[in-house]
Amino acid sequence: MPNKLDRYITKIYNILIPMLMFGVPIQAIIPVFLNIPSNPINFGFRLSYAIISFVLILIAVVYRPSSYRNIPLAPTILLLLFFLYSIRLIYDVSIRQIKFDGGDDIMIYGYGFGNCFLPSISIILNRERLSIVSIVKGIYIFIILANVIVLSMILFQNDGFSANLFLQRVSVRGIESNLLLINTILIGFYGAALVISTYYILSFGINLSKKWIFYLLLILGVSNLVLGASRGPFFFTVLLFVIITALRIILNQATLLLFLLRLFVGITIIISLS
User: Fold this and answer.
1) Is the pLDDT of residue 14 over 70?
2) Distance between CA 228 and CA 223 in Å, rounded?
3) 144-172 CB burial, b ≥16 within 10 A, e <16
4) How many other C-beta atoms are found inside a 10 Å radius of the C-beta of residue 89?
5) Do 34 and 172 contact (CB within 8 A), yes or no?
6) What letter does residue 166 receive in the DSSP assignment?
7) pLDDT attached to residue 78
8) What dihedral do alpha carbons 247, 249, 253, 259 form, nearest 10°?
9) Which residues pair with 173 in a beta bridge?
10) What is the pLDDT of residues 181-198, one digit of tens each?
């Protein structure tokens, strides 16, 4: 297979994977600022993800048949989990008639299979073309973009900054009746992802220049974490904060007193914010 095509596929995954993980705010900003219905925008993005994934699967099957003949154990287990999940999804949607926010069956199946199953298959089959370092960098950039966009939309829909925003659970709404584009849990999740990833970089980054930028990113992440006011993101932020700090202590041979102090401060902040 031509190396040039390999490079193109690698670049596609450098954008596709972060977009699938943290691309919801990018989808939401268009209908929010243009004050238009969100369903056509979301449908266009989701259809694009599915088509791109399907094309990448075809490329892998045609040019590298060995990609689906020698699948490692971990991806095999993932495929098995997807198969079991698919049975449960079909049972809940088609037999029990469970609806999510009034969505029809096509929308639910399109998201489950088109935006979860197909991309996972394409990633497994093209695993040898992935650049892990580039993907990780792309994910961090998209985490930053997601937090900036989320905070911008919150301020836009609430007529600017107000201290009252931190006293309530905010969300991002579409012009459709009672439609949440980004709920409180997602807002908190994006903030938690930025806080943890930035704290990890500050803890283990070597010779970082312009550290003040990372401190600003921490403030941005904490802001969205507080605005979301969801227990799950708060809990995992504290847990990962403790784990990263413990690793830093072990690797740097820091004192136990410093670790306990940071642990106490972290827990105190979370309890007070909760």
Assistant:
1) yes
2) 9
3) bbbbbbbbebbeeeeeeeeeebeeeebbb
4) 19
5) no
6) G
7) 78
8) -160
9) 180
10) 888 888 889 999 999 999
Q: Are 246 and 202 in contact (CB under 8 A)?
A: no
CB atoms within 10 A of CB 178: 8
Report the distance separating Cα 147 and Cα 176, nearest Å: 23
Amino acid (one-letter) located at 261: L
- Burial letters for 18-44: b for 16+ Cβ neighbours within 10 Å, e otherwise? bbbebbbbebbbebbeeeeebeebbee
CA distances from 72 to 68, 79, 111, 117 (A): 10, 11, 26, 17
pLDDT of residue 93: 78
Cα–Cα distance measured from residue 64 to residue 5, given in angstroms and rounded to the nearest whole number: 12
Reduced to 3 states, what is the DSSP secondary structure of residue 181?
strand
At residue 63, what is the residue type? Answer: Y
Q: At residue 103, what are phi and psi to the nearest 5 degrees?
A: -75, 150
* Bridge partners, residue 182, by sequence: 172
Max CA pair span of the chain:
59
Whole-Å CA distances, 104 to 8, 88, 181, 209: 36, 17, 17, 50
Q: Where are the alpha helices (DSSP H) in the chain?
A: 3-22, 24-34, 39-63, 73-90, 105-109, 118-125, 132-157, 184-204, 211-228, 231-252, 256-273
Residue 110 in tokens: 């399109």
Note the pTM of the prediction, 2 decimals.
0.81
Tokens 């969100």 belong to residue: 38
State which amino acid sits at residue 219.
I
